[in-house]
C-alpha cells in the first residue's frame, strides 16, 4: 500500500517563488499544489476542497485578492478553519500582517531553504 503524502498548497503570484518552494517541498516528500495568485474567493475555496491541503502558505501582496482576505475567509469557514496557514511576505511588518490575517504562523521572505522545510514540518505535525 502506498503511503499518502502530506499536501501543501502554495498561494503566491510570483511564479519563480512558487517554483522554488514547490521544488524544495517536493524534494522533502510533500505533495504540492501551486495557485498563482487568486482572482476570486470561489477559486480558493474550490482548490482547498479539491486538494484538501494539510498546510497552506499564503502570500500577502498579490494581484487580485489580498492574502489577508483569503486567509480570513478560510479561517471563518467552518470546514477549512483548522488548516494551518503560514503567511509569507517580504514586508517588514509581517508579524502584524500575519496576526491580522488570522494566520497560524509566518515566514519572512527571503528565507533559508531549511527554514521553509522546518516551518512545514512543524505545522504539518500539528495538523
How would you characterize this protein structure?
With 127 residues, the chain is α/β, with parallel strands linked by helices. It has one domain (7-105): Rossmann fold. Helix content is 43%, strand content 20%. It contains five helices and five strands; from the N terminus they run βαβαβαβαβα. The chain has helices at residues 15-27, 41-51, 67-75, 94-100, 113-126; strands at 7-12, 31-36, 55-59, 85-89, 105-108. The chain has a five-stranded parallel β-sheet with strand order 2-1-3-4-5, with helices on both faces. The longest helix is centred in the C-terminal third of the chain and has 14 residues, at 113-126. The chain is globular and about 30 Å long.
Amino acid at each position: 500500500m502506498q503511503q499518502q503524502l502530506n499536501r501543501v498548497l502554495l498561494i503566491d503570484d510570483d511564479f519563480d517563488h512558487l517554483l522554488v518552494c514547490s521544488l524544495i517541498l517536493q524534494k522533502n516528500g510533500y505533495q504540492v499544489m501551486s495557485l498563482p495568485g487568486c482572482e476570486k474567493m470561489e477559486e480558493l475555496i474550490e482548490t482547498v476542497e479539491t486538494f484538501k491541503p494539510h498546510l497552506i502558505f499564503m502570500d500577502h501582496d498579490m494581484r487580485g485578492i489580498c492574502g489577508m482576505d483569503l486567509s480570513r475567509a478560510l479561517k471563518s469557514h467552518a470546514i477549512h478553519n483548522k488548516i494551518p496557514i503560514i503567511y509569507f511576505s517580504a514586508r517588514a511588518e509581517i508579524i502584524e500582517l500575519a496576526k491580522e490575517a488570522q494566520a497560524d504562523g509566518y515566514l519572512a521572505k527571503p528565507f533559508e531553504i531549511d527554514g521553509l522545510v522546518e516551518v512545514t514540518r512543524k505545522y504539518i505535525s500539528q495538523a
